[in-house]
Amino acid sequence: MAIRNIREYGDKVLNKISKEVKEVDKKTRELIEDMIDTMYYAGGVGLAAPQVGVLKRIIVIDVSEEGNNPIVLINPEILESEGEQTGDEGCLSIPGKVGTVTRPNYVKVKAFNENMEEIRVEGTELMARALCHEIDHLNGILYPEKAEGGLRDVTEEEDEG
Ligand code: NI
User: Fold this and answer.
1) CA-CA to 145 of 20 to 30 Å: which in 65, 86, 132, 135?
2) Cα(147) to centroid(ligand 1), Å
3) Quick check: is 117 catalytic?
4) Domain annotation covers residue 99
5) Is residue 3 part of a domain?
């Protein structure tokens, strides 16, 4: 287990487009384990590989209350989205800030798991928001680009991804 350094807003790596993963080798497995550890350590509900400086299309998400149910998505693609939700969003790469972002209220995603088996994941509300936010990271997009009315300081502990 290793906690990796989270790249912060302004680091150019966060604006780059990540590359498709062709196979999950030992190095990729280590990366995934480290991403999960780093997400929990930082208290986030999601993390994308470029946030630890690796331009691979891998995200990890855990929106569970217990924080012990990580989902790993490799090469994720949004297949369907429905509805709308407007709410506060944060990012581990932009500590101490939140912004108001409108996202779909439901998304269905196609991806691969750690064994490169195709999976489908769907979610509403926070899960849908996390999926959209993390997939945006793989395309070099950070939430401030989508935030209405700029960023605000976090006053109390809020979810960051
Ligand atoms: Ni983020």
Assistant:
1) 65
2) 13
3) no
4) yes
5) no
